[in-house]
Design brief:
50% of the residues lie in helices and 14% in strands. It has 534 residues and is an alpha+beta fold. It has four domains: 2-142, Rossmann fold (3-Layer(aba) Sandwich), CATH 3.40.50; 158-272, Putative Large Serine Recombinase, Chain B, Domain 2 (Hect, E3 ligase catalytic domain fold, Alpha-Beta Complex), CATH 3.90.1750; 282-363 and 446-506, no CATH class; 378-440. Helix 7 (177-188) runs antiparallel to helix 8, helix 7 crosses helix 10 and helix 13 (363-406) runs antiparallel to helix 14. The longest helix is centred in the last third of the chain and has 44 residues, at 363-406.
Length: 534
């Protein structure tokens, strides 16, 4: 009979002086081998927790080959072999695969037996509880250390120029600290953050972190970067061994400067939104693709021709695939939107929708939106019926497959192979069906409410909230060099459905003075002319 004995310790502290932790386990293993008259081979595993034994090199390279040769396993206790966590029984699966028994001072356990399986399961539950307790005690210990003003993370996580002596439990500065003070003084003096970051040798994000960390004014505040400050402890300055790195006056001036720059950035964005209220929902589309069309589209997918606002030029610019063709000097038909003057284009688009809003009280307009709602519900109802039929067919097919498997006509592997794609399709159909079933019934009050919200456009123009109004009502607005080609209106009662409507109006009729710059350059035109003459 042969035994492979496991002597394991998780940390160096568990080894103890002169290796007494391992020595105690070796003695216990020797007694087990003597009691059973077995030859013993001891394998020591250091620095590995019970949950990671199966992944350790010692287990893979020494223990497993011995198990394959017919050895059983011995340990001072079961938790020396493994402490299963998250139902990971890798070690015990290996023992079962090699029919190996477990020898401990309490007796012999067979992982294949009911009693052995029960013991392993119980041990896994206890290990999970122990793990939660260890985590709780660790977090409580860290919180207590932070309240005392102690650093709880690794040395590599310390702020720039700051040191922490783990043994003496004292804070300090290194040779980089004076550079932080000089950087803050330069920033307050008007030097840009990018230049300050380069001089300090950090990134732009790094300089922002340094300038916001209260440790430099002497305050240790864990969680400051997450705006979750629960503890503030003075570690430098008044009453401490070392003075704070920067004075309160310098610190306050740095924060005021940062807030001013942030406000300037926000003001710039607000100005951009005001100059281009329709940016993000504009799409370039040739007139002939949409003219006269009235159709419901059950999708929220955007078209492939987005139009963006170029702030430096004050123009709307298309960024579709034709731009890459122009850069590559490839002849072809382009979508045709040039660099539209944003001020004039905004005026034209507003005039387009103001005209529709003014018609919101007319009978024709009421009929239009009522028809739109009915069409949307019709599409939703039709799709609902299709999905319900699909779900019924898939469920019937899965039942037939299950009957074949239970009758023994097909194997479990064949059943799994055929059922998997059907179960996936069933899940997708149910996910798509759920919002359609939840769609409410449209009443006359709902239609009147929608009409009134359209009629509120003049009030939004006056309040400067045109963008909010546009995003609420439209999925896309189609424009080109000739004018407004149409739009895709949102249907508020049916999720994921838009109504694409073509009502082309020229810029001239809308009162917009648009002078476009054609995308195609003279060189491209010359090449096309030369190619056609050949």
């Amino acid at each position: 009979m042969k035994l492979v004995g496991i002597a394991r310790v998780s940390t160096d502290q568990q080894v103890g002086e002169n290796g007494e932790g391992l020595a105690r386990q070796r003695n216990a293993l020797g007694i087990i081998a003597a009691n059973h008259g077995a030859d013993l081979t001891i394998v020591e595993i250091r620095g590995v927790s019970g949950a990671k034994v199966a992944d350790s090199p010692e287990w893979q390279r020494q223990v497993v080959p011995l198990l394959e040769s017919g050895c059983d396993i011995a340990a001072d206790s079961l938790d020396r072999i493994a402490r299963p966590e998250d139902f990971d029984y890798g070690v015990f699966a290996t023992l079962v695969a090699h029919s190996a028994k477990i020898y401990t001072p309490n007796g012999v356990e067979d992982p294949k037996s009911p009693s052995g399986q029960m013991l392993i399961t119980f041990q896994a539950a206890m290990a999970g509880r122990e793990r939660m307790e260890i985590t709780r005690r660790t977090q409580e210990g860290k919180a207590a250390m932070q309240k005392r003003g102690e650093w709880t993370l690794g040395q590599h996580r310390l702020p720039f120029g700051i040191t922490w002596d783990k043994v003496a439990r004292t804070w300090g500065y290194n040779e980089k600290a004076p550079r932080v003070k000089a950087a803050m003084e330069a920033y307050v003096g008007g030097q840009p953050a990018n230049a300050v970051a380069r001089e300090l040798g950090v990134s732009k994000a790094g300089i922002r972190t340094i300038m916001a960390n209260p440790i430099y004014k002497g305050i240790f505040a864990p969680g400051w970067s997450r705006n979750d400050i629960k503890v503030e402890v003075r570690v430098f300055g008044e009453g401490k061994e070392l003075p704070q790195l920067v004075s309160d006056d310098l610190w306050n001036r740095v924060q005021a400067n940062r807030q001013m720059k942030s406000k300037t950035y926000r003001t710039t964005n607000e100005a951009t939104r005001k100059a281009a209220p329709f940016s993000g929902i504009l799409r370039s589309l040739p007139t002939y693709e949409l003219e006269g069309q009235h159709r419901v589209i059950p999708t929220e997918k955007k078209s492939d021709h987005p139009v963006y606002f170029n702030r430096s030029m004050g123009r709307y610019v298309c960024r579709c695939s034709c731009q890459s063709q122009i850069k590559a000097k490839t002849p072809g038909d382009f979508c045709g939107i040039g660099m539209l003057n944003a001020v004039e284009a905004n005026k034209g688009i507003l005039a387009y929708f103001q005209g529709m809003a003014e018609k919101s009280e007319s009978l024709d307009y009421t009929e239009l939106w009522t028809s739109l709602a009915e069409d949307a519900l019709g599409v939703a109802a039709g799709r609902t019926g299709e999905l319900q039929t699909t779900i019924k067919d898939i469920e019937a097919a899965l039942e037939r497959l299950l009957d074949l498997h239970l009758d023994g006509s097909i194997t479990k592997e064949k059943y799994t192979e055929k059922a998997a794609p059907r179960e996936l399709a069933l899940q997708e159909a149910k996910i798509e069906l759920a919002p359609l079933l939840a769609a409410p019934t449209i009443t006359e009050e709902d239609v009147i409410k929608l009409q009134k919200s359209w009629g509120q456009l003049p009030a939004h123009i006056k309040a400067g909230t045109v963008r909010e109004w546009a995003v609420e009502h439209f999925s896309e607005i189609y424009i080109n060099n000739d004018g407004v080609a149409g739009f895709a209106a949102r249907i508020p009662w049916v999720p994921g459905v838009v109504f694409q409507f073509g009502a082309t109006t020229t810029w001239e009729k809308l009162g917009a003075n648009i002078k476009t710059h054609k995308n195609t350059s003279r060189k491209v035109a010359a090449r096309k002319k030369a190619a056609s003459s050949k």
